[in-house]
Amino acid sequence: MCPDWHHPSPEEKRGRSGKAPSSSEEGGGGGGTSRKSMLQRAAHMRHNSTEPERRLWQKLRASHLKGYKFRRQAPIGRRIADFFCPAKGLIVELDGDTHDRARDLARDGDMAARFGYRTVRFTNEDVMRNMEGVLLALTEALEMQPDRWPSASKHHPPTPSSKEEGEQ
To answer: Which residues pair with 92 in a beta bridge?
Structure first.
């Protein structure tokens, strides 16, 4: 028996502005956004994922893609990335019909300049119709990126010591 999932209506997804929110735009407006509100917005986005996001997450979660660990709806600066591979500094964005390519590329350049992160983009249609091609292109992008932690094994950041974790 399948659980009864709540799928937000198009009106719920768009909110009051009538435009679907873009993860690239999160926190980008007005007088700045607090870390707490960014984390709350990211959590909300994780619980209200689009169908393409859910499908891609099933392929990325639990290090399913070649052992690479991903986070979803990851706050980075003033942006919430759809998916992020910390070991490679690679952001993965899924774009729907409302995305402005020139604006997205400018934001991607800003992320590269400020944090050294590369962004790869796929359309929602790519994910829905050609998942195998998306995963192949994503694997190639990951393998081209240098490791951020060259000595770390299995694509994970160094593990803190038990003393740092608070064990007694």
So the answer is: 83, 120
Distance CA 168, CA 64 (A): 34
Residue type for position 144: M
Q: Higher model confidence: residue 55 or residue 159?
A: 55
- Closest to 60 measured CA to CA, from 154, 134, 111: 134
CATH number (domain holding residue 92) = 3.40.960.10
In a domain, 91, yes or no: yes
Which tens digits make up the pLDDT trace of 59-107? 999 999 999 999 999 999 889 999 999 999 999 999 988 878 899 999 9
Full residue range of the structural domain in which residue 135 is found: 49-146
Q: CA 120 to CA 33: how far, in whole Å?
A: 25
For the chain, report the end-to-end CA distance as a whole number of angstroms.
Answer: 44
Q: List the structure tokens of 54.
A: 């859910």
Give per-residue pLDDT as tens, 134-156: 999 999 999 999 999 876 555 55
The token pair at 62 is 């639990």
Q: Are 118 and 89 in contact (CB under 8 A)?
A: yes
